[in-house]
From TrEMBL:
Protein name: Transport permease protein
Major localization class: membrane
Domain ABC transmembrane type-2: from-to ranges: 16-244
Cellular compartments annotated: Cell membrane; Membrane
Residues passing through the membrane, by range: 12-33, 53-75, 96-119, 131-153, 165-185, 219-239
Length: 251
């Protein structure tokens, strides 16, 4: 909890990061909602338009592109020369990892829900289904992608490597998972590989709530898939993460 509070204080000194994570998706959703209108599935709730596709897609896309942010919390300690001091504290390696990743899960959750709240008056966005179901999918998405961020940190030796890996993976997740562009507008082969990306399940869960008037039972499968990805990323992080490994900040 001490590590978590410390990270939250640091995040609190960067309000622009939070605002950027809400403002930019709003702008892109506003620019693209007309393009998304033609991709609205038949049988969606009455009044559904392009905003109901564009806003959830941008929310998931930016969450994927920002997945690596939690990793810089680790590299920052290397840059400040405080990593060894942190390791010498009573906190275990698990305490350190959870304490540094959890605040970014909360940040991602706030940004996605903030995007939905802001898009309601600005873009006419509306949720036809259950808000508790929406919050459940968003929470599972934030947890999954931030855990993937911890995995990217574990395999990166320098902050530049982390920046490169997170950028490439984030873009692949956003594009091939159907977040940036609806799957119906992508080549047929993307339909085959899309379920291998957690963003596919995040978008599917959000569409079930936003477009199809879904409730908690309707998001059980997407949420379960996201949690399965989370468990996989956590296991891989545990297997790869070495607290004593030398890392370079801005190297």
């Amino acid at each position: 909890m001490a590590i978590l509070r410390h990270e939250l204080r640091i995040i609190g000194t960067m309000p622009g990061t939070t605002l950027f994570g809400i403002a930019m998706p709003i702008v892109l959703a506003a620019l693209t909602q007309g393009l998304f209108t033609s991709a609205v599935p038949a049988g969606s709730a009455d009044g559904t338009g392009g905003a109901e596709l564009a806003v959830p897609g941008m929310a998931v896309a930016f969450a994927a592109l920002g997945a690596g942010r939690s990793g810089f919390a680790f590299f920052r300690d290397y840059g400040w020369g405080t990593w060894d001091r942190l390791r010498a504290s009573p906190a275990s390696t698990l305490d350190i990892v959870v304490g540094k990743v959890a605040p970014w899960v909360l940040m991602s959750l706030v940004q996605m829900l903030g995007l939905f709240a802001a898009a309601t008056p600005l873009l006419g966005f509306r949720v036809s289904g259950s808000w508790p179901a929406l919050v459940l999918v968003v929470s599972a998405t934030a947890l999954c992608l931030c855990t993937f961020g911890a995995l990217m940190t574990a395999v990166s030796r320098t902050s530049q490597q982390l920046n490169s890996i997170s950028g490439v993976c984030g873009l692949a997740f956003a594009a091939l998972g159907g977040a940036l562009v609806p799957l119906s507008a992508l080549p047929d082969w993307v339909d085959t590989v899309a379920p291998a990306f957690p963003t596919y399940w995040a978008v599917r869960g959000l569409h079930a709530v936003v477009l199809d008037q879904g409730g908690l039972p309707d998001v059980a499968a997407p949420t379960g898939a996201l949690l399965a990805f989370t468990a996989l990323f956590a296991l891989l992080t545990t297997a790869r993460f070495r607290a004593g490994e030398s890392k370079v900040y801005w190297g």
